Structure formats: C-alpha cells, structure tokens
C-alpha cells in the first residue's frame, strides 16, 4: 500500500514538474522575436545573388568546375550587420551540413560568431552559436545579460557550410534593425582553404575577417578549399569582379607546373580589366609537415619559387601596381602554428596577419586606398 502511494505521488510530481518545464519553455520561446537575416544587412558579399547566403551566383559561371562551385556556396566571410537594444541575442539557422570537420571546430565549420563594437569603437568577440549535433537545424542563445543600450553587431556565418536560413532573435519589446556596412572599399582575396578559414576556431577568426575588423576595409573572401588552382573558368570569373585591390593567395593548391601555366594569365587579365587596382601576390604558407615529409616540403619550395619567378617576369616587363609578399615568416619559427601541419590555427593566423597587415597597409596607403 505504501509503495502504491509513493508511486502515485511520484507520478503526480513528475507530471507537475514536466508541466512547469513546458510552461517555462513556452514562456521563454514566446518572449523571443525573430527577424529573418534578409531584413538585416549582409556584409562581405562579392556580388548581389539570388540566394541571399551565397557569396556569388555560381550559375552565372558555367565554365567553373563543379567542385569549385561546391566551395563557393559556403558562406565564408559573410556577416550580418544589425543594431539592437535587446538584453540577449539569439539565433536560429540551418546549414547544408550535419557532420563536423576532422580539422575544424564545429563552430567554425557550421556555427555562428558574434562581435559587438565596444565603447572604444573596436570590434570585440561576444559569443558563439553552437550547432546542434546530428542536425542541420540549430538554435542558440549567443549572448545574454547585456545592459539594454543599443549595440552594433556583426554575426559571422559558417566558413565551411552553405547557410540555408538564418533568423536573429531579440527579447520581446526590444528592437532590431539593419546595421551599416562598417567596412569600406572592396579587397578581393582569392585562395585556398586557408583563405576560406581553415582552421580558425571561429568564423570571425578567418584572416580575411580579422583584416576587415583591423583595417576597416571590406576583404571579400573568395576561398575555395583544396581547389584554388587558377582554373581558366575561375580566372575569367575573377577578372570580371570589380574590386579596389586583388590579393592572390592561391599558391598552396597549385602544382608548380600549374603556377607557371596559369599565374601570368590571372595577373595580366586582372591588370587589363582593372588597370588602376593593385595586385598583391602571396607565396604559399610553408607547411609544417614539410620539415619531415621531404617530398611535401620540396613541393611547397618549388611552388614558391615558381610564383616568385612568374611575378618577377611581369615586373621586368614593366607591370605597374604589382606587389609580392613572401611567406618566410608567416607561421613563426616554433612550429606551433598549424592544426595539421598545413592549416593555420589561431596562433598561425595571428602570425600571418602580423606579416600581411603591415605590408598591405603600406601598399594601400601608397595606392590611395587608405588615406
């Protein structure tokens, strides 16, 4: 008898508890108002697109290899700009991918990354949207307990997934509105997985995004992981994109023979179509794995020799506004700057930026892009 009474009491208590949880959950979700990202401001797009979350329209370029198009639909470098006075910021989003990457964090691969402009006017990390395991649909509270004053936000999209949908949530009674594009000019950066963001820990830590925040310039991410090889269709696409400057970091994926066959065509094509735009060519990062993998190390050495010689040939012919950044100091000398011997970790990207940013600052100042 006592056992039956206990079971009944336990059952009633459980029902009441679950009911309270459900009421609490309903109250929480009903107190959040979501706004589709399409009503906010997208930063970092290379061109207007039919799909709001694509960097460019791949259908407009039939000669681009299909494998390149799969990279171009990833949302690397894109961020949503908005302003809000909400005390918390939420997000619901959907990606094409479900599974994580072996070499990247789930947040970098298919999560979100929020920055808020602080009182000193600098962009400061504020929180992340962690993707849900085993599902392409996710929701998250990105930051809470804000002071209720208006804040200016940049919410970075996944580097290595196609973003299918995104809504930004704020507390009921608060406002959210489209922000400005905080970055000026257009600096197109074409390259490999390193440009796309592998293997930064968060989307906003990709070096193009970090350079944008540091320099106030719009670095457009045209990273195409593993296939940044200056293919003829891709060259035609790049030449047709208007930009104030072009940064070519596409050597890591190209064989030395491909570099000798294709680099001059890409560079001269840009120069002919955009005679006033500076072109900055970067050597391949020296892979840490190559110090013991002699064959791999020699390949990178030959890549870097090939691109330096191709650039020098064009300079010898009198090409103007062409610049070259060697990779000797990109990762430092302690061999701790990569995740897997190839892709920089956050430390490696920081070291790259310490080399690249001063060089770009000098070039852009000379060329009038920075005044």
Quick overview of this protein structure:
This protein has 371 residues and is of the alpha/beta class. It is built from nine helices and 15 strands. The model is unreliable at 1-27 (pLDDT under 50).
Which term fits the overall shape? globular
Question: Helical element count?
Answer: 9
If you compute it from the alpha carbons, what radius of gyration comes out, rounded to the nearest whole angstrom? 24 Å
Could you estimate the helical fraction of the residues in percent? 25-40%
Percent strand equals 15-25%
Tell me the span between the first and last alpha carbons: 86 Å
Structural class by secondary-structure content: alpha/beta
Estimate the mean pLDDT confidence.
93
Q: How many E strands?
A: 15
pLDDT < 50 runs, ≥5 residues: 1-27
Secondary-structure element sequence? Answer: HEEHEEHEEEEEEEHHEHEHEHEH
The major beta sheet can be summarized as: 6 strands, antiparallel
Describe it.
This protein starts with a helix and ends in a 5-residue tail after the last helix. The protein contains nine helices and 15 strands. It is α/β, with parallel strands linked by helices and 371 residues long. Strands 2, 3, 5, 6, 8 and 10 form a six-stranded antiparallel beta sheet that branches. It has a five-stranded parallel beta sheet with strand order 12-11-13-14-15, sandwiched between helices. It is globular. Helix 5 packs across helix 9, helix 6 packs parallel to helix 7 and helix 7 runs parallel beside helix 8. 43% of the residues are buried. Helix 8 links the parallel strand 14 and strand 15.
């Amino acid at each position: 008898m006592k056992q039956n009474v206990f079971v009944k009491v336990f059952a009633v208590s459980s029902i009441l508890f679950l009911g309270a949880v459900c009421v609490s959950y309903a109250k929480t979700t009903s107190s959040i108002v979501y706004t589709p990202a399409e009503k906010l401001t997208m930063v970092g797009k290379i061109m207007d697109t039919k799909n709001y979350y694509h960097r460019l329209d791949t259908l407009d370029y039939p000669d681009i290899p299909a494998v390149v198009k799969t990279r171009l639909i990833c949302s690397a470098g894109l961020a949503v700009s908005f302003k809000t006075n909400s005390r918390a910021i939420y997000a619901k989003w959907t990606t094409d991918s479900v599974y994580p990457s072996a070499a990247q964090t789930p947040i970098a691969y298919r999560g979100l990354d929020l920055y808020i402009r602080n009182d000193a006017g600098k962009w400061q990390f504020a929180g992340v949207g962690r993707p849900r395991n085993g599902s392409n649909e996710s929701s998250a509270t990105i930051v809470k307990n804000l002071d209720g004053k208006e804040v200016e936000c940049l919410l970075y999209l996944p580097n290595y997934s196609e973003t299918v949908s995104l809504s930004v949530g704020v507390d009921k009674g608060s406002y959210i509105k489209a922000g400005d594009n905080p970055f000026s000019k257009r600096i197109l950066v074409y390259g490999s997985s390193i440009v796309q963001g592998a293997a930064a820990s968060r989307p906003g830590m990709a070096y193009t995004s970090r350079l944008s925040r540091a320099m106030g310039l719009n670095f457009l991410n045209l990273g195409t992981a593993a296939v940044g090889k200056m293919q003829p269709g891709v060259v035609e696409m790049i030449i047709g994109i208007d930009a104030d400057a072009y940064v070519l970091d596409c050597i890591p994926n190209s064989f030395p023979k491909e570099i000798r066959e294709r680099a001059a065509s890409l560079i001269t094509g840009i120069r002919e179509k955009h005679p006033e735009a500076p072109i900055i060519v970067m050597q391949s990062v020296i892979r840490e794995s190559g110090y013991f993998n002699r064959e791999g190390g020699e390949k990178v050495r030959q890549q870097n020799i090939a691109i330096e010689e191709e650039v020098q040939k064009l300079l010898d012919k009198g090409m103007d506004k062409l610049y070259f950044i060697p990779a000797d100091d990109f990762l430092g000398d302690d061999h701790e700057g990569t995740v897997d011997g190839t892709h920089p970790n956050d430390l490696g990207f920081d070291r790259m930026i310490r080399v690249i940013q001063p060089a770009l600052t000098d070039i852009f100042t000379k060329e009038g892009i920075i005044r």
